[in-house]
Amino acid sequence: MTSPRIEIDLAKIEHNARTLVTLLSGRGIDVTGVTKATLGSPEVAEAMLAGGVARLGDSRIDNLEALRAAGIQAPLTLLRSPTPDQADRTVACASVSQVSELEVVKALSAAAGRRGVTHGLVLMVELGDLREGVLPGDVLDLARCISRTPHVTLAGLGTNLACRAGVVPSTDNMGELSMLATLLEGELGLYLPIVSGGNSANLAWAIAAPAGRINDLRLGESILLGCDPLTRMPLSGLYTDAFTLVVPVIESLAKPTVPRGATGEAAFGVPMPMRERGTIVQTIAAIGRQDVDPEGLTPPGGVSVLAASSDHLVLETPHRLAPGVELRFGLDYSALLRAMTSPFVVTTFAATTSPLVPELSFLPWAS
């Protein structure tokens, strides 16, 4: 079989989605399944939908277009604001866009008008993480402008945390978003069907605190990898191994542990200091930084990652391995995102036929 490749267990993704949808439905919160880490994979999207997500979301228009081309009819949300010149493509494939700039709103309005449709907008609010969103004091003014703009409708309010600065979703910032939603409805005389509190990092808050007006979370990492982005710890009842990276060995030889000769910067900056440990078995796998984040790989037992260049993953193995032998790695979100977007990594799909019984794992908010 071709490698390197990612093997995706769709049944485990469906299971994770269903578990989280069921968990959050009791709190009055819908799930938007986020496909961006899988390059907008229609197969992964279908597994999320089978698990009960209310809609799908992706940051890239190309990915949303791929979902539509594959015949997926579910509501699609563009999770990153388009540029004005992307307005026509956005309106053609998405029912809702997240926005924070009036110029973008006007471009989407014009595009929707040309198509004879009404496009939904979720106004993003900056609540501390310093990525996208207008400041809370400017929300009402921009919302009022949107409410007066033809061919678009203010479908909701949203925020994003724990992506740039690692700000933790809390009772305070989620309460502020709820308050802003209520304020807009009162001042503008409208109803906001979507109040999107954030991403997988919101799960601990969503279980422990009153949801207020929050009725949507955009979940990618927790569905795909079964872990909490704030801690990278597994979530109870979810699979953490729906994705496996399989890479062939191209060299496996006994070599010293320290370099010989004067050294300078390596291909990716200053290398980590290497401690003299005598001779080891150094094995090279046919993948590199162009295709994956090596720091995000979990190697097989007894194997450790030493370094990576563009196209070589340098490992230490207990013994020599024959060229062509395949090694299987777990991936974190960063590694998955990069591997799925590499044209040199093949994607294959499977659906577990045996009963799905995820191992018991740590529940961060239950301790």
Q: What is the topology?
A:
Blueprint (H helix, E strand, L loop, with lengths): L4 E5 H16 L4 E5 L7 H9 L4 E4 L2 H9 L6 E3 L8 H7 L2 E4 L2 H14 L3 E7 L13 H9 L4 E8 L11 H18 L5 E3 L6 H6 L7 E4 L1 H5 L1 E2 L4 E2 L8 E14 L22 E7 L11 E2 L5 E5 L4 E5 L8 E6 L1 H8 L5 E5 L17
Parallel strand pairs: 1-18, 2-3, 2-9, 3-4, 4-5, 5-6, 6-7, 7-8
Antiparallel strand pairs: 1-12, 10-11, 12-13, 12-17, 13-16, 14-17, 15-16
Can you offer a commentary on this structure?
With 367 residues, this protein is an alpha/beta fold. The protein is built from ten helices and 18 strands. The protein has helices spanning 10-25, 42-50, 61-69, 87-93, 102-115, 139-147, 171-188, 203-208, 221-225, 333-340, and strands at residues 5-9, 30-34, 55-58, 76-78, 96-99, 119-125, 152-159, 194-196, 216-219, 227-228, 233-234, 243-256, 279-285, 297-298, 304-308, 313-317, 326-331, 346-350. Strands 1, 12, 13, 14, 15, 16, 17 and 18 form an eight-stranded mixed beta sheet that branches. An eight-stranded parallel beta sheet has the order 8-7-6-5-4-3-2-9. A two-stranded antiparallel sheet has the order 10-11. Strand 2, helix 2 and strand 3 form a beta-alpha-beta unit. Helix 6 packs across helix 7. Residues 360-367 have low confidence and may be disordered.
